[in-house]
Amino acid sequence: MRIRLAIAITALAAFGxxxxxxxxxxxxxxxxxxxxxxxxLDGFGGISALELGPDGSSFFAVTxxxxxxxxxxxxxxxxxxxxxxxxxxHELLTPAGKPLTGWRRDSEGLALRGDGxxxxxxxxxxxxxxxxxxxxxATRLPDHPDFxxxxxxxxxxxxxxDARGHLYTVPEAPLRRSEDLPLYRYDGTEWRIVQxxxxxxxxxxxxxxxxxxxxxxxxxxxxxxxxxxSRVRRFDLADFDPKGEVLFTSALGQHDNLExxxxxxxxxxxxxxxxxxxxxFKFFQRTEIVEYALTETLAKAPLSH
Length: 305
Fold this sequence. Notes:
With 305 residues, the protein is mainly beta. The protein has a single domain (5-17, 28-294), classed as Tachylectin-2, Chain A, CATH 2.115.10. The chain contains 1 helix and 20 strands. Strands 1-20-19-18 form a 4-stranded antiparallel beta sheet, with no helix packed on it. It has a 4-stranded antiparallel beta sheet with strand order 2-3-4-5, with no helix packed on it. It is globular, with a radius of gyration of 18 Å. The two termini are 30 Å apart.
């Protein structure tokens, strides 16, 4: 997401203020970790997507300037995030094998197939590219006709892949004010709208993932003038409720601009929601890794879609 000038000025005016209040009592998830992440790396910041391995430590992340990061999360005795080890970084390439430049670099979503194939969604030009080799040229997937009508700052931020290898994406905003949010699925041949999600409370989709329970998790955020609120909704695509189920909603300013989501199961059987914030390359924002755990004792069986 690019912060517009008016938003940036408002946030700057609020810099240094402490936002009071606490999150709503979580019914389905509890906060485990909020870890500040910084690197002495040229181009670090603006992290828009995160994909963890099954161990909850190895990761890929992508910035909204096409920098792909690879590394491991360090964890303490209780599984909390205590550090980050960066093992690699490089620019993503176009299908022609060249770096993207300018506004075209708006990479926002990330999905990792079981065989290592990496997918990246872009807001600029509303497209999805595949990377058989993360350091090699991209392969552009076919577009859905709707992609041409999506505004450049409210397009394909959220990208996820299910157990069958089908991709799912949802735009940051409805195509028209009166509509719901279309959920698109790519089956290897074409994109189709498979469901419509009801937008609510002025939250916008920014990240997505499928959990080990086979359910679809959607990270959404709302900008409240002096800070962000975030929440995660969960959807059963086999028994679909367009409103979904809210797992948590953070207080205003509790976290920064959370945009990336990875859902996995830890060694105790708990499902964790690991998120990363996009600092928009602004000094008054921060990059942080935030992790919640579901409080449910029983998980649903994996679903096929």
